[in-house]
TrEMBL record:
This is NAD(P)-binding protein. Residues 4-234 form the Enoyl reductase (ER) domain. It holds the Pfam family ADH_N. CDD domains: enoyl_reductase_like (cd08249). GO terms for molecular function: oxidoreductase activity, acting on NAD(P)H. SUPFAM superfamilies: GroES-like, NAD(P)-binding Rossmann-fold domains. PANTHER family: HYPOTHETICAL OXIDOREDUCTASE (EUROFUNG), ZINC-TYPE ALCOHOL DEHYDROGENASE-LIKE PROTEIN C2E1P3.01.
Length: 240
């Protein structure tokens, strides 16, 4: 956790599980994310606890938690960010704890990029007629990239992505239409040719002559006036 101006430190915390509207969960599995080091390096606030994604079993419940919402012994997965907010959901028996632990940061980051910044229609709100528009997902084989591909596909977009050749079949199975080798120096030209220079959305990074919107996972400044950028540091406060 973070404390004053000291380096990140290991510290035992007392967990009573007596919060009125909270639950105490015995953690079984966790997932590591880039946001863990970003919290240390870029958002140093006293009391922040490093780590976000987890899965486990409910062992105690607050008095105000409805019995129909949670129960002792329930398998759950969730996400907690620093000391701010947490979200939990029931974990199906068909899912392992390891699978459940990766449902947090990558999934919510993908949703924030697509629906809060790029303002795409959600899979539940797609109009009957959706224009065929490309979106570029750079590094589509990453955990966040895989979620972006699937959500963007459900939102009616045509997916272009990059990854290493060994992952071409993986990203295509998730919904990618065109896949290019991220290490190929001609990939940018191939993408512009495939989209006829009309690419306007990316998570992140190449555009047509008319510019567009770039959702990035690290701070980045566009040197092209027609390209708008926004850096996404996972923000759960808008969801809680």
């Amino acid at each position: 956790m973070l404390e004053d101006n000291l380096p990140t430190m290991m510290k035992a915390l007392v967990t009573t599980g007596k919060g009125g509207c909270g639950c105490l969960i015995k953690v079984h599995s966790v997932a590591q994310n880039p946001t863990d080091w970003k919290t240390v390096a870029l958002r140093r606030e006293e009391g922040n606890i490093i780590g976000c994604d987890f899965s486990g079993v409910v062992v105690k419940m607050g008095r105000e938690v409805p019995s129909e919402l949670r129960f002792i012994g329930e398998r759950v997965a969730g996400i907690v960010h620093g000391a701010f907010c947490s979200i939990t959901l029931s974990l199906p028996d068909s899912w392992s704890f390891e699978h459940g632990a990766q449902l947090g940061v990558a999934c919510f980051t993908a949703c924030q990029c697509l629906y809060q910044y790029l303002h795409l229609p959600t899979p539940l709100g797609i109009p009957e007629s959706v224009p065929e528009e490309f979106i570029l997902v750079w590094s589509g084989a990453t955990s966040t990239g895989q979620y972006v591909i699937q959500f963007a596909k459900l939102s009616g977009l045509r997916i272009i992505t990059t990854c290493s050749p060994r992952n071409f079949d993986l990203v295509k199975s998730l919904g990618a239409e065109l896949v290019f080798d991220y290490a190929d120096s001609y990939t940018f030209k191939h993408i512009l040719t495939a989209t006829q220079g009309r690419l306007t959305m990316a998570v992140p990074k190449s555009f047509g002559e008319s510019g567009g919107n770039l959702a990035a996972l690290l701070p980045i400044k566009s040197h092209i006036p027609s390209v708008k950028t926004e850096w996404h540091f996972l923000n759960l406060s808008c969801l809680c």
